[in-house]
Automatic annotation (TrEMBL):
The chain crosses the membrane at residues 263-287. Residues 63-136 form the Thyroglobulin type-1 domain. It holds the Pfam family Thyroglobulin_1. GO terms for cellular component: membrane. It comes from Pelobates cultripes. This is Tumor-associated calcium signal transducer 2. SUPFAM superfamilies: Thyroglobulin type-1 domain. It comes from the Eukaryota. Residues 1-24 form the signal peptide. The keyword Disulfide bond applies. The keyword Transmembrane applies. CDD domains: TY (cd00191).
């Protein structure tokens, strides 16, 4: 008889613990592995350590790239995650960005230094660098993001099925409305995904294509931002199609303003073309010089002869 009340108390305690755990599980951040959430009535309120502060975030959709980059560039509390070796196509890689309160990149970025430059809405540098007085009049929108992936097996899969699987992954996993996936194309093992979303098309609530690119790049590199219980998969008939080597290209509504002499590794293809053009130019120059040289020599000879004739 004396055991029963104790037992009841124990059972009640156990029950409480289980319920609170269940509640904790109900309220977690679906879009950041380090998101810290607490149930508040029916709402789930989440925060993320970004820089030195805990920043409130909306965990129902991808977290803005500016916040993610800031978090990553800061060794702060969360610890510094190891970076995969594959570099971004955006020339500068990581910097510590200045974000607006809503997670949009500020047009001018200085990486906490005296050197500043202008970025697009994807946070990628689009001008030369200058000093603290460098002016950026507007944040130019990246309206087109190309995601290039490479398939990591050669299983033959009908194109239409693979296209649908990729589109489903993008709409379900990153919450991007399907209308912004304008094309998916294959070329051997390469997959090209075009995401287009211009200023007039995007409503404030729509996920930004630049954020989708960032999440996808991390997923394919095996360094996901989304919690591991929701793995990245491209499922065709229930079977994952493995992909690797993500490359992201950004195209802005206005042409970038980076002068040639400052171009770095990311635009190596352009430089190669320029070098080829210069070599071709030199070859042409040398050839024409040679011909000209012959004429000049001939002329000199004639002149000499004329001189001789004159003096004789
Ligand atoms: C930003 O600053 C960090 C630390 O000073 C540096 O390692 C990084 O290269 C800088 N990035 C750019 C794009 O200047
Ligand atoms: C934005 O895209 C829509 C649909 O593709 C197009 O009709 C519209 O002209 C575009 N607006 C701008 C400003 O480019
Ligand atoms: C590609 O596939 C090979 C063989 O299955 C595997 O060992 C490798 O880890 C894969 N690479 C990537 C980046 O997934």
């Amino acid at each position: 008889m004396t055991i029963s009340p104790l037992f009841r108390l124990g059972a009640a305690l156990l029950c409480c613990i289980l319920i609170s755990q269940a509640l904790g599980q109900d309220c977690s951040c679906n879009f950041h592995v380090k998101g810290d959430c607490q149930a508040n009535g029916n709402a789930c309120v989440c925060k993320l350590p970004i820089g030195p502060d805990l920043t409130p975030i909306d965990c129902t959709k991808p977290i803005p790239k500016c916040f993610l980059m800031k978090r990553e560039s800061n060794p702060g509390k969360g610890g510094r995650r190891p970076k995969p070796e594959n570099a971004l196509v955006d020339n500068d890689g990581l910097y510590n960005p200045d974000c607006e309160g809503n997670g949009i990149f500020k047009a001018r970025q200085c990486n906490n230094t005296e050197t500043c430059w202008c970025v697009n809405s994807a946070g990628v540098r689009r001008t030369d660098k200058g000093d603290k007085n460098w002016k950026c009049t507007e944040l130019v929108r990246t309206f087109w993001v190309i995601v290039q992936l490479t398939r990591n097996n050669t299983d033959s899969i009908p194109e239409a099925d693979l296209k649908k699987a990729i589109a489903d992954t993008i709409t379900n996993r990153y919450k991007l409305p399907a209308k912004f996936i304008t094309n998916i194309e294959f070329e051997g093992p390469l997959i090209y995904i075009d995401l287009k979303q211009n200023t007039t098309e995007k409503t404030p609530n729509d996920v930004d294509i630049a954020d989708v690119g960032y999440y996808m790049e991390k997923d394919v590199k095996g360094d996901p931002i989304i919690p591991l219980d929701n793995p990245f998969q491209i499922l065709v008939n229930g079977k994952n199609v493995p992909v690797k080597e993500p490359l992201i290209y950004y195209i802005d509504e206005k042409p970038h303003e980076i002068s040639m002499k400052r171009l770095t590794a990311g635009v190596i293809a352009v430089i190669v073309v320029v070098v080829v053009a210069i070599v071709a130019g030199i070859v042409v120059l040398v050839l024409t010089r040679r011909k000209k040289g012959r004429y000049e020599k001939a002329e000199v000879k004639e002149m000499n002869e004329m001189q001789k004739q004159l003096t004789s």
